[in-house]
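Risk register update: the risk of archive-format incompatibility is retired. Evidence:
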Amino acid sequence: MFPIQNKSLYLRALLPLIMRQLGDVAGVRTIINTIQTMTKADIVTSITRQTGVEKAVVSTVVEAFMDGIKDAMGKHEPVYLRGFGSFIVKKRAEKVARNITKNTSITVPEHHCPAFKPAKELSSGVRHRS
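Archived output:
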C-alpha cells in the first residue's frame, strides 16, 4: 500500500467512485467534505478559545512543549504523558535490503526512529467515539 500524505484529499478523490457505487446516498458527500487534519495552528486556536489566553502566548507554550519533546527524544529519553501516550525512540537493527534499480543488496545500518504509543485511555476514547 502506498503512503497517504493527505487523507482528506484522498477521500475527496474517491468521492465520485463512492457516489457511483452507492448512488446518491444522503450524507456521504457531507461526511467526506468535513474530514480535516488538525494542524498546530488549529491546536493553538482551540486552546486560545478554551482558555481566553492570548494567541501569541499559547503559540509560544505549544512551541516550547514540542521543543521539549524533540530535545528529550534527541537524547533517546522517552516522554510519558499520563492518559495520552508515550513518545519513545525505537532501535532498528541492521538489515539487508534490495536496490531494485541496480539489482544489488545493500546493508541498512542500525538506526533509531521516533515512535508514539497511545495510552489505553486515548485508544479506548478513539475506538468508542462515534
